[in-house]
Write a structure and sequence with these properties.
This protein is of the alpha/beta class. The chain folds into two domains: 2-167 and 341-357, Rossmann fold; 171-340, 3-Layer(aba) Sandwich (Rossmann fold), CATH 3.40.50.2000. The protein has helices at residues 14-28, 44-52, 68-80, 90-99, 126-134, 144-154, 171-174, 202-209, 227-236, 252-257, 273-280, 294-297, 309-321, 323-337, 342-357, and strands spanning 2-7, 32-37, 56-59, 84-88, 108-113, 138-141, 161-163, 188-193, 216-221, 243-247, 261-264, 285-288, 302-304. Helix 3 packs across helix 4 and helix 8 crosses helix 13. The longest helix is centred in the C-terminal third of the chain and has 16 residues, at 342-357. The termini are close together.
Amino acid sequence: MRILHVITSLHTGGAERLMVDLLPRMADQGHEVHLAIFDCTHTPFYKALEATDKVAIHDFGGSVYSPLQIFRLIRVIRKHHFDIVHTHNTSPQMFGAIASIFVSKKVTFITTEHSTENRRRNSLWRPIDRWMYTRYSRTICISNEALTALESHVGRHPTRNIVIQNGVDTIRFTTIPLGEIPPENTEVHIIMIAAFRSGKNQETLVRALALLPERFRLTLVGTGERMEYVRTIAQEAGVSGRVTFAGHRDDIPEVLKSSDITVLSSHYEGLSLSSVECMAAGRPFIASDVPGLHDIVNGAGILVPDNNAQALAYTITKLCNNPSFYRNTAENCRKRALDYDISTMTKGYLKLYSEIKA
């Protein structure tokens, strides 16, 4: 099959990471795989995908919200006669729906919902979204919670809306030795991996750090527009000397290997890939008890109330004071992560494509 995926950019994020992991695997199965990018900044993810030499990348350029992207998309689809066009993120979803009107009916359009929240989830956008999703043969939700959120917004459609869970390359992380509780009076390294966006809520973790003894250290991995805001919060909380802003890192397995406890204090998620990576690395994982994290973490890692620095600090302390609790949590996290391997997701996507085109 000829397959085109469409995304806004390859900046840091779960959907962006997925392009790097998923598309080369589709190509390995004998398919011709292309990726159209609106913002073609040559980010680390872009360079990593390009280096595989397995995916044809189409750089559209210009604003990710420019209507000109519709014409560029139509032109690429007509030129390459794709069997499948698969969109991700807000503007590709809308522009893909519009483009579907002007290309051959033989082209099947599919989209993926990557989160339980987005800016269109309100009554003003609802009629537009309802039309938009009708232009897609299938809407894939990356978790049951993402499906529930979508259908509460636009209504149920049992045959069109389906769940294929997100996945990561767990083999990159399961070779890391299981974490061990740090000896008393030594540094405890806490890590959170997330883009600096409002929904990620790094500030609650920073405030939790301020409630912990001096030996606790925090590393925040990621980039984004709220980094300076979180840096200011760290200064105001008096912990700026204990917080490292690591920026983008390509060596996430090595980063996690150096950690003792991993955290994701988000207000919401779709199905967080970084949470799966943290758990696969065999480290105790603490997450907010919110949509997109509850299902994946419950019964393996530890859930705490959203936006509650005190509960977060208490849980971190409990892990460090109880070796068996620490070890059992680390083991359970690794076992749970194996349910979210990228190979299962790849098979699910390709099976869906084949069934639709049969």
